[in-house]
Amino acid sequence: MQRKRVFALKCKDGVAKIAYADLEYVEVINKTVFFHLAGGDVYEAAAALADFEGELLERPEFVKTHRSYIVNLSFVQAVGVYCAITKNGHSVPISRQRRSQVQDVYLQFLHQTELSGAQEGVFAEKPVRPDGPWQILLVDDDSADRAFWAGILKKHGCITHQAENGRDALNLAEKEYYDCVLLDVMISGEDGFAICEKLRLKTGAPVIFLSCQTEADKQMEGFASGGIDYITKDTPAELFWAKVSTRIKLSSSSDCIQMKFGPLLLDLTEREALMDGQELLLTPSEFDILWRISERAEHIFTPKEIFDMILSGQPWDGGQAVQKIMSGLRRKLDKAWKKHCFIETVWGQGYRFVPPDC
Q1: Is residue 119 part of a domain?
Q2: CATH number, domain at 214?
Q3: Which domain holds residue 94?
Q4: Which of 51, 78, 202, 257 is most deeply packed, by most CB within 10 A?
Q5: Is 65 helix (H, G, I), strand (E, B) or coil?
Q6: Which residues of 234-257 are buried (b: 16+ CB within 10 A; e: fewer)?
Q7: Quick check: pTM over 0.70?
Q8: Under 8 Å CB-to-CB from 209, ≥6 apart: which residues?
């Protein structure tokens, strides 16, 4: 029986017919399903991915890469550790739990379709880490800055490999295993944002941006390009090391890093917060605060400590930004679980995380 070539979609503008061959990938954002076509058109449907995935996944060219993403393998150019890159330049996330499956399915798909040069650009699973200290790839075209950061890393027992531009960094990435990449934004040649994804594909290591640019839009651009953190160059040495070591530990630990406090579950791998099984829609700053303060339950965090967690390098505003973020976070927690107040305000001192007794 011949497979049907199109499916009908009830979208916001009516009913549309979408050809399977034109569908590049599907993503879910805030309970809206977006169907991205190769030509650039996007159709929206107020539904759940589960309403469509059965129909899509029965076809060999489609694979689920993440709980919120399905990609058409016909449009995939390369499969990396954290994402699939399409021929149109889009990055489709791959969850850790699905990583091996996606790579296997892609290789099988290439074999079955007998594409010439099929395996070029397909990257293997992150290699087993060798014994020894952490190895860091430091990319910065300022020799003084490289020496400064390398000195801090050496103090903490790390081995640092240095590059002054993206080309050299990519060459090093092909030869060594790295636990982390520290990447300056303003480097000669392609800037850090441009080569971030290439380094992630080659190393599988978390990329942390280093920059003297403290503007919020620049930091957002860093996260959008695939960075896992953004450290400004005026960050104190110990805070710099705390951020780097934490990111490496999270990246190299088990595939499912979770913290549970009664009905509240924090999944550090997927960066999700669930309350009694229902996802809390937290901003990145809200999630980071909740995670960091829950690690030290009952410790009172001052507004300045919380400010430095998420807005390091920004001018201290007296606590206004922290107060606004904490207020929003507490409202979301209270709405999701009225039986307990997870974050307590300690008058005149700050905030602390109070886990429930259950």
Answers
A1: no
A2: 3.40.50.2300
A3: 6-113
A4: 202
A5: strand
A6: ebeeeebbebbbebbeebeeeeee
A7: no
A8: 183, 184, 185, 192, 196, 219, 222, 227, 229, 230, 231
